[in-house]
Amino acid sequence: MSSSQHSRPSSGPSSNLPPDDATVAAPSAPSRVPLDHRQLWTKAAVGANTYDFASGRVTPTIYERTTAAALRHEALNLGQGFTDHEGPQWMLETAAAAITDPQQGPGNQYPPGPGLPALREAIAADQQRRWGIELDPTSEVLVTTGATEAITASILAFAAPGTQVLTFEPHYDSYGAVTAIAGAELVGVPLRGPDFRPDIDALEAAITERTSLILLNTPHNPTGTVFSTEELRRIVELARRHDVKIMCDGVYEQLVFDDAAEPHRPILTIPGADEVAVAIGSAGKSFSLTGWKVGWVTGRAELVNQVLGIKQFLSFCSGPAYQWAVATGLADDRGFYAENVAGLQAGRDLLYAGLEAAGLRPNHAEAGYFIVADIRGLTDIGDVEFCRMLVEEVGVAAIPVSSLTVQHRANPQDELQNLVRFAFCKRHETIEAAMDRLAQRLPAALDHRPA
Ligand SMILES: Cc1ncc(COP(=O)(O)O)c(C=O)c1O
C-alpha cells in the first residue's frame, strides 16, 4: 500500500479492505513479513489490529496486552473492561448449587444448543417486562457463549463475502476481526467529540450497493453514548430503504446513568426494526459476571434462525449452570441493577474529576464502563505513546482508542488518534489511587519527554 493510501482524511469513513499487493506496511511498523491474504487468521488479525507486521505473528488483543503491561509495571489497571468486584452472591451460589447438585438444576451435560429453555423464557419475559418487546422464547431467542459469540454468528450470517459492513468507530474490536473472517470489508464512520453522537447523514453517505450490514452498539463502548430514539429510528429507516441488516449490540443496556440525555432504547422497540435487526445482550455486563460468558441474540424467528445456522457450529452450547443462574437473575435482580449503576455512576464522576484535574478532556459518558479523554490539551505524542508512558512512568493502564478504529486510522492529526479510554468499573479506591498518580506523576513524565 502506498503512503498516500495510508493517509486517510480526518473525517469521513475509513475501511479495512486488505490491499491487493502482497506486503503492506502498518502505520507504525514497517513491513518485513509478506502478508498472505488467503489465510483467514491473517485477515482476522489485520481486521482487529492484532497483526504484528514486523514479525508476521498475531499479538494478544489490546485489552490483554494492556492488562499484561499493567501487571508488569504494577500499574493500576483502568484498561480492560472487567469489574474488580464479584456479581451478586446469590447468583454465584445458584450456579455452584446447579453444578454440585445436578438434581436441582439443569445438570452438567450438554444443554440444548439454542440455550436452556428456562433461560430463553427468562430473556423473553425480561424483554417484555422492561421494554414491551414480545418474543417467542423457542424461536426468537438464542443463547450464546457471551455476546462475543452472538456478534460472530450474526456477522457471519449476514455479511456475505465481498460486501461492506458499516460501523461507527471507535468500535468493539471483534467487529473488525469477524468482518474480515467473513470476507467482507469493515467501513468505519467516525463518532466525533465532544459528545460523540452518531452522524446519521455520514452513515447514509457511507452506504453503497455493496453494503450488507450495519453494526450498532448502544450504549456505546468506549464513548458511553446512548443512541436516541430519533437516531435509531433514522438508522432503521435507512436499513429498510437500502435492504441492509442491522446487528445491535446492547451489552451495556442495564448500565445507563440517570443523567443520560435519553433512556436507552433497544433497537427492537423501533417500529419496523424487527424486519431487519437482531439485538444482542450479555449477562456478563448486566450482572458483573464477565467470566461467565452468557449472551443472547433476539429478533424475528427467521433472522434468529439464520444466526443459529452459524452459532451451532461455533460453540454449539455453553455451560448449563451459568445459564441457569442467569435465568434466576433475569427473573428477579433483587435490586442489583440499581445498586450497580449507582456505584458505576459514582466511579464515573470520580474518574471524570480526576482526568479533568490532570488536564485531559474527558467526555460525559452516559452509560457503560468507560470515559474517553482527549489528550491534545496536554501533548501531541498520540494515544499509543501516551498509554505506553502512562503505564510505564505513571503507573496507570489505559487503552489507546486508535486501536479500536478501522486499521488504526493513520492520520496522526485525527481526533481518534488522540483519545484514551479509561475504565471506571473498578473499586472507587482504585480510581482514586489512579487519579492521585496522574496528579503527582503525569506532569513530570510529560516534562521528561525528549522534545
Ligand atoms: C460492546 C461490547 N460488545 C460485546 C462484548 C463482549 O461481551 P461478552 O463478554 O458477553 O462476550 C463487550 C465486552 O467488553 C463489549 O464491550
Automatic annotation (TrEMBL):
Its cofactor is pyridoxal 5'-phosphate. It comes from the Bacteria. Pfam families: Aminotran_1_2. Residues 75-438 form the Aminotransferase class I/classII large domain. Keywords: Aminotransferase, Pyridoxal phosphate, Transferase. Residues 1-35 are annotated as: Disordered. InterPro entries: Aminotransferase_I/II_large, Kynurenine-oxoglutarate_AT, PyrdxlP-dep_Trfase, PyrdxlP-dep_Trfase_major, PyrdxlP-dep_Trfase_small. GO terms for molecular function: transaminase activity. PANTHER family: FI04487P. This is Aminotransferase class I/II-fold pyridoxal phosphate-dependent enzyme. It comes from Nesterenkonia aerolata.
